[in-house]
Amino acid sequence: MVSEVPAQDTHGPEVSAPASSGTSKPAVVCVFCGSCPGTSPAHVGAAQALAEAFHRNHISLVYGGGTVGLMGEVAKTLVALSGPDSVHGIIPEPLVKWEQESPRDLGEKDVYGRTTVVPDMHTRKQLMAKEVIEGGPGSGFVALSGGYGTLEELMEVITWNQLGIHSRGVVVFNVEGYYDGLIQWVRTAVSSGFIAPGNGGILVEALDAEEAVKQLQEYKVAEGRFKLDWSQK
């Protein structure tokens, strides 16, 4: 078991944005995506293109730690371009046999970057979010194509943004219309009165990799976000 990051308190991290230290930290982007490649080669191509855009813009990747499907593709592409220190995979121990192509992958830092094995899904998401929140300008979350898990992770960070837990950008990389239905659902929820109009723009769309990076760099916090105090007192 790899444990390069110490076990964290599973009740949740302090997730408010850190105070500026006067120095610019590198951007960290968390990518949510499938552990399958999808039926269209466009999905794998998008994962590769996103990694290439990260390399051009000096962005580090934190992701779910899988070495198969789109997860493995975005990780190994960025490692090949930017080196193993540019990628941090965080995977729950029970998923190692499902999302790692081989047990040897855990030690393949030169292929997939460094890997941290954690006990559960909550800790995985907690640590990924923490790295993004503590990253420099342009840090945020990008969803490539994926299934239930990808959507669950995406909706959680959208909700956290609305609640004021973080102020990082949230982008869907919409490959071949994959997220058209989700984007339309947001519009319908706004028009139906379930999402405030001022929060309709928390989630933004990108149609290519460079646009995904640009959307994070130019992300504007939604006017309707809840002004809640999440500091631990």
Keywords summarizing the entry:
alpha/beta; single chain; seven-stranded parallel β-sheet
How would you describe this structure to a colleague?
With 233 residues, the chain is α/β, with parallel strands linked by helices. Helices cover 37% and strands 14% of the residues. The chain has helices at 41-56, 69-82, 96-99, 109-112, 121-133, 148-162, 180-191, 209-217, and strands at residues 28-32, 60-63, 87-92, 114-118, 140-143, 169-173, 203-206. Strands 4-3-2-1-5-6-7 form a seven-stranded parallel beta sheet, sandwiched between helices. Helix 2 links the parallel strand 2 (60-63) and strand 3 (87-92). Helix 1 packs across helix 8. The relative contact order is 0.17. The model is unreliable at 1-22 (pLDDT under 50).
Task: Outline the fold blueprint.
Elements: E1 28-32, H1 41-56, E2 60-63, H2 69-82, E3 87-92, H3 96-99, H4 109-112, E4 114-118, H5 121-133, E5 140-143, H6 148-162, E6 169-173, H7 180-191, E7 203-206, H8 209-217
Parallel strand pairs: 1-2, 1-5, 2-3, 3-4, 5-6, 6-7
Outline of the structure:
It contains 8 helices and 7 strands.
The total count of helices amounts to 8
According to DSSP, the number of beta strands is 7
Shape estimate? globular
In N-to-C order, the SSE pattern is EHEHEHHEHEHEHEH
Mean pLDDT: 89
Distance between the termini: 35 Å
| Fraction in helix | 25-40%
Biggest β-sheet strands, sense, barrel = 7 strands, parallel
- Widest sheet: strand ordering: 4-3-2-1-5-6-7
Alpha-beta classification: alpha/beta
- What is the C-alpha radius of gyration, as a whole number of Å? 17 Å
Low-confidence stretches: 1-22
Proportion in β-strands: 5-15%
